[in-house]
């Protein structure tokens, strides 16, 4: 029988639309202002912290809608932003330095809906607001780090060529090498001049010294490299956080702008982005006197460091390997269920670790965690002064020669091991950075954009609805139902996809999709009219109208979809947001305009003897 779907097919179409409507529902519940308390450096909030938060809020006579401890974090919802801001200030003052207190907007999705994965669409910074950071790169530390690298490279090159020297030290923007003999000085100058063409070399035969000075061009390259590498590493860290539609770009000579739309954990974002963490591997000085070192008499070639429990150890100054050679790091558990971090090195790092451990089997080696923290002080050039914190993670005996892959234990809790692996995997920053400006994009701009965007969508839908009902009568109602289903499916799909984010350009993509969806129905309806004018029966006209128009609709939508996919692949920011909604809209519009609308037409008019058709 013409124009008659089997029951299973009708139910399947209805189920798809209903599923889309179900997952679009969370967008109707809105969001509540909230304050989130998160631990720093892997510390997790517990029941005692929850009681403390409640006590501080009650003491300040601040009422809240709900409070919950979830996944080591405390989330407190409030009825208005005024209470939220007051609570943030109170908790930030009372909880000390172990916890970070951040503002959030949390969805009011019912528990039953959240249990099946329902959540509202993520909105971009232009719609929902979010956090914008202006970060400053410490260029002085970048140059210092480059000098340390030069000292290490000079020592290695001279040692490999068996050229004897007394010392290799840093001095201003240069490195000074003191040799033992004039022959060594000449050989060293020849070697270093050949390998480091971007340095200015000068010698003093009387003192047997060679000075390698960085040129202005070299200093400029170091600063540029530090900025670009930090941008790349921060992008990696943002990706680790799972933030959709982020913006990371340079501003001027030493600043980076980061925009994180709709972040749900601003505390963790600040901790991860601002962290300048890496690790170093050093041999333990077993020959030095630890008690003398504790009393201030540290040997010239050693340093005194402590672990997180405050236990001191004497370590060699010479670094076996730095975190710059780490290519991958994953947290896990060892055979005794203790947290560990599995590390992979690049080829150069593997060679250094192999040669460093080959002659030290049976000796203890320390893993040192290094972190730079910004202080309130600035140097003469206006750069922020950073405080270098070093902490021993673990000390283990070298059992065998290590290579490109190995593991470290003693990182603390599973959360601390995970956090350390994340930082090492994303990359150690070339130079310390600090947040010099943190700007929360308020809801006013976002609310206005959302309001205007939805007004544009509703206006577009309304005008199309009216036109279709007047021009195509009963079939116009079918087209309008298909349009409504299309909008519901777009919202539902956007809500289900974890990385999909609705931006203002994305709203423009939805409006464009409305017009394209109507085009498909117009093609079908006009073809039905044409078939009826040629004298075919109504059922034959409906059947032929859908069949003949299908290939045209597919061709037109596929070409547009290809263009949208290209925009998504090569575009960034707003362009990507537009491409996402356009791509989803094209796919859903083909389903609703052809399949869903024909299901309704078949249910109402299919298989019946009709003398006229309201089209």
Topology overview:
Elements: H1 7-24, E1 31-39, H2 47-59, E2 66-70, E3 73-77, H3 81-94, E4 99-107, H4 111-115, E5 122-123, H5 125-128, E6 130-137, H6 139-160, E7 165-171, E8 174-179, H7 182-195, E9 199-204, E10 209-214, H8 216-241, E11 247-251, E12 255-261, H9 266-274, E13 277-284, H10 290-294, E14 302-306, E15 312-322, E16 326-333, E17 339-345, H11 347-358, E18 364-378, E19 384-397, E20 405-409, H12 414-426, E21 433-441, H13 443-496, E22 501-502, H14 504-533, H15 538-570, H16 574-605
Parallel strand pairs: 5-22
Antiparallel strand pairs: 1-3, 1-4, 2-3, 6-12, 6-21, 7-8, 8-10, 9-10, 11-12, 13-15, 13-18, 14-15, 16-17, 17-20, 18-19
Helix pairs in contact: 1-13, 1-16, 6-8, 8-9, 13-14, 13-16, 14-15, 14-16, 15-16
Q: Indicate the overall shape.
A: elongated
CATH superfamily of the largest domain: Multidrug efflux transporter AcrB transmembrane domain
Question: How many domains?
Answer: 4
Average pLDDT confidence is 82
Keywords: Cell membrane, Membrane, Protein transport, Translocation, Transmembrane, Transmembrane helix, Transport
Transmembrane segments: 452-471, 478-497, 503-525, 546-570, 582-605
GO molecular function: protein-transporting ATPase activity
Main location: membrane
Tell me briefly what this model is.
The chain contains 16 helices and 22 strands.
């Amino acid at each position: 029988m013409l124009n008659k779907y089997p029951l299973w097919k009708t139910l399947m179409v209805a189920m798809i639309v209903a599923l889309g409507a179900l997952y679009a529902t969370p967008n109707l519940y809105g969001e509540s202002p909230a304050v989130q308390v998160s631990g720093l450096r892997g510390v997790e909030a517990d029941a005692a912290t929850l009681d403390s938060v409640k006590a501080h809020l009650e003491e300040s006579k601040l009422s809240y809608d709900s409070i919950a401890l979830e996944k080591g974090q405390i989330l407190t919802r409030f009825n208005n932003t005024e209470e939220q801001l007051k609570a943030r200030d109170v908790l930030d003052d009372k909880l000390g330095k172990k916890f970070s207190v951040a503002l959030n907007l949390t969805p009011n999705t019912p528990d039953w809906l959240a249990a099946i994965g329902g959540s509202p669409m993520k909105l971009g910074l232009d719609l929902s607001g979010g956090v914008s950071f202006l970060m400053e790169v410490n260029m002085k530390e970048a140059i210092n780090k480059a000098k340390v690298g030069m000292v290490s490279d000079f020592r290695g090159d001279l040692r490999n060529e068996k050229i004897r020297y007394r010392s290799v030290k840093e001095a201003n923007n240069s490195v000074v090498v003191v040799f033992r003999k004039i022959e060594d000085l000449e050989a060293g100058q020849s070697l270093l001049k050949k390998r480091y063409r971007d340095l200015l070399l000068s010698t003093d035969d009387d003192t047997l010294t060679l000075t390698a000075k960085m040129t202005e061009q070299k200093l400029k390259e170091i600063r540029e490299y530090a900025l670009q590498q930090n941008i790349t590493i921060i992008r990696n860290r943002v990706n680790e956080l799972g933030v959709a539609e982020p913006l990371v770009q340079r501003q001027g000579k030493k600043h980076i702008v980061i925009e994180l739309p709709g972040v749900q954990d601003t505390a963790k974002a600040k901790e991860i982005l601002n962290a300048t963490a890496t690790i170093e591997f050093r041999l333990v000085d077993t020959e030095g006197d630890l008690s003398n070192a504790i009393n201030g008499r540290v040997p010239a070639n050693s340093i005194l460091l402590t672990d997180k429990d405050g236990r001191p150890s004497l370590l060699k100054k010479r670094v076996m390997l730095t975190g710059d050679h780490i290519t991958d790091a994953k947290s896990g558990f060892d055979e005794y269920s203790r947290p560990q971090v599995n590390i992979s090195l690049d080829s150069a790092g593997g060679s250094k670790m192999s040669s460093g451990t080959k002659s030290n089997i049976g000796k203890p080696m320390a893993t040192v965690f290094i972190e730079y923290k910004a202080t309130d002080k600035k140097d003469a050039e206006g750069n922020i002064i950073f405080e270098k914190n070093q902490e021993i993670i673990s000390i283990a005996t070298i059992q065998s020669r290590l290579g490109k892959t190995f593991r470290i234990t003693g990182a603390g809790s599973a959360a601390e091991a995970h956090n350390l692996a994340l930082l090492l995997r994303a990359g150690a920053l070339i130079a310390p950075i600090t947040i010099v400006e943190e700007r929360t994009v308020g809801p006013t701009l976002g609310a206005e954009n959302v309001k205007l965007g939805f007004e544009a969508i509703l206006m577009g839908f309304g005008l199309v609805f009216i036109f279709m009902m007047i021009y195509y009568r009963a079939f116009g109602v079918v087209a309008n139902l298909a349009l409504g289903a299309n909008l519901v499916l777009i919202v539902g799909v956007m809500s289900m996809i974890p990385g999909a984010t609705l931006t203002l350009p994305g709203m423009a993509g939805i409006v464009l999709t409305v017009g394209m969806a109507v085009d498909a129905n117009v093609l079908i309806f006009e073809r039905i009219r044409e078939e009826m004018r040629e004298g075919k029966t109504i059922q034959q006209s409906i059947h032929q109208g859908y069949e003949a128009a299908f290939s045209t609709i597919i061709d037109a939508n596929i070409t547009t979809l290809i263009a949208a996919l290209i925009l998504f692949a090569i575009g960034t920011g707003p362009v990507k947001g537009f491409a996402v909604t356009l791509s989803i809209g094209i796919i859903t519009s083909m389903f609703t305009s052809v399949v869903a609308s024909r299901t309704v037409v078949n249910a109402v008019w299919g298989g019946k003897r009709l003398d006229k058709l309201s089209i």
